[in-house]
Specification:
Number of strands: 31
Strand content: over 45%
Radius of gyration: 29 Å
Number of helices: 2
Structural class: mainly beta
Shape: globular
């Protein structure tokens, strides 16, 4: 099989300012246009020998307008091997094993969808109505002149590449009564695309999108399904899946520098440019970087009191520590389905372990400072003070980094099917479904499942109830 694809992404936008006092519309301040293209050639070949030995080979060539002509194209091969062990003579007559397959694979994938349209080109941004240069005329009057300022860029930016190895086994026992798979994988990302701080004078910006380092992910995936009861009137099956993943940054700079702390990440509310995470070598991506909170004998946090990690008598950036990570190590899903004659019932849920979450709502609003004063002529929601008793905000206290482990009861449904309803209607199924029923967690906020690991005005997921009718003619 071979193929070709062409994708174009474009947008247009205009920014204007409306001056209510003068009751007029100011001339458009900026016209924003965006255009990127992605062209791909791809192919796949499959080969089977005696229905026992399988080979799959794929190849992609992707070209992006985001990179220069020297780095525009990325080439991403992959192959997979499989051996149907059950088809071999020494297992063919073993009735207890209904299926058994060993497989292994290797492949490269690419990433280019980060940053602006042309991060490799030097471009300019025009000033708007709030960023004009004041020029004093000879007569003493001031004229505000629009300017253009250079943007940061990296002429050598290129494709991010991820290399993956995997080995797995698929199995089935007792005529597929018990079936599942186990897979081990190792994934290494090279030339990671990310925004990093830039030293003053080194570029036209203080933060630049570039290829900064390497990242590894390794772990195990497991899933199993068991058909516990299989009869004419009653069928019951249960299933589970599990993923264990270890994420680690292995390189962030061109040359190894043991004194390089890392790249700040994870913007939070509270001050301009404040961050709560740090990407550092040897740690998981988006690990929280905070001061270690000190507590009194009753377990209450002491305001502004932190552990002096280097024992120099000062509390500063050198005393911050990595504590917790946004991504979980363990994810577990469970499900079951029961069918009795015309009745059917199903439910599913999920566990998450090993992740942390930063409660930015509590760190910003859970203090006595400005508790009742919203800063304007309007009411504002505030959090109870009982959690900390802090008078002032303590954004970088480890107290606000909480455990994000949880169990979620995601879905439950019950249905009944009326069969042979009439000559025209063959069946009618009536069902009731509920989603996001409840969550079990020690997190003090609303929901610990936040992708970034930072809970900042997270909009709660709704609990949904549905009634449905399916008619088959």
């Amino acid at each position: 099989m071979g193929g070709y694809s062409y994708q174009e992404f474009s947008s247009n936008g205009t920014s204007i300012t409306y001056n209510r006092a003068e009751d007029n519309v100011v001339t458009p301040e900026s016209i924003d246009k965006s255009l990127t293209r992605l062209v791909s050639f791809f192919g796949r070949a499959e080969y089977s020998y005696k229905q026992k030995y399988l080979l799959n080979v794929t190849m992609r060539a992707d070209g992006t307008s985001r990179f220069s002509t020297d780095n525009r194209w990325g080439y991403f091969p992959a192959f997979g091997l499989a051996w149907k062990v059950k088809q071999e003579g020494f297992l063919k007559d073993v009735e207890a094993i209904s299926s058994l397959k060993l497989r292994a694979g290797w492949g490269l994938t690419g990433q280019q969808g980060a940053g602006g349209d042309t991060p490799y080109l030097g471009t300019y941004t025009g000033s708007n109505g709030t960023a004009l240069y004041p020029f004093v005329k000879p007569d003493g009057s001031i004229e505000y002149i629009p300017t253009s300022r250079p943007d940061g860029y990296d002429k050598d930016i290129k494709w991010e590449e991820t290399e993956t190895y995997n080995v797995g086994i698929d199995f089935g026992f007792f005529d597929e009564k018990l079936s599942g798979s186990v897979e081990w994988y190792y994934r290494k990302t090279n030339d990671l695309l990310s925004y990093v701080p830039v030293p003053a004078g080194a570029n036209f910006t203080n933060s630049l999108l570039t290829n900064v380092g390497n990242l590894t992910n390794k772990g195990v995936e497991f899933n199993v399904n068991y058909n516990a009861i299989t009869t004419e009137d009653l069928n019951w099956s249960v299933g589970a899946n599990m993923t264990y993943n270890v994420n680690e940054i292995t390189k962030l700079t061109a040359n190894d520098d043991p004194n390089f702390l890392g790249n700040p990440a994870g913007g939070i509310s509270g001050g301009t440019g404040s961050t709560i995470q740090m990407n550092s070598v040897g740690y998981s991506t988006y690990s929280f970087f905070v001061y270690e909170q000190v507590y009194d004998n009753d377990g209450r946090p002491l305001e502004g009191v932190y552990v002096d990690q280097n024992q120099d008598g000062l509390i500063n950036e050198l005393d911050k520590i990595h504590k917790g990570q946004a991504a979980p190590n363990w994810m577990v899903g469970i499900n079951t389905r029961l069918q009795y004659k015309n009745w059917d019932f199903a439910m599913s849920g999920r566990f998450q372990f090993g992740a942390s979450i930063y409660n930015n709502n509590a760190s910003t609003r859970g203090v006595k400072q400005d508790t009742y004063n919203s800063g304007g002529n309007f009411l504002s929601n505030r959090l109870p003070m009982a959690q900390t008793g802090f008078n002032n905000t303590q954004y970088w206290s480890s107290h606000y980094v909480e455990c994000a482990d949880f169990f979620k009861f995601d879905n439950v449904s019950l249905g009944y099917t009326f069969k042979d309803f009439s000559k025209v209607i063959s069946s009618i199924r009536v069902n009731a479904t509920a989603q996001n029923l409840f969550i079990i967690s020690n997190y003090s906020g609303v929901d610990p499942e936040v992708a970034s690991g930072i809970d900042n005005n997270f909009y709660p997921r709704s609990r949904t109830y549905m009634l449905g009718v399916n008619i088959a003619f």
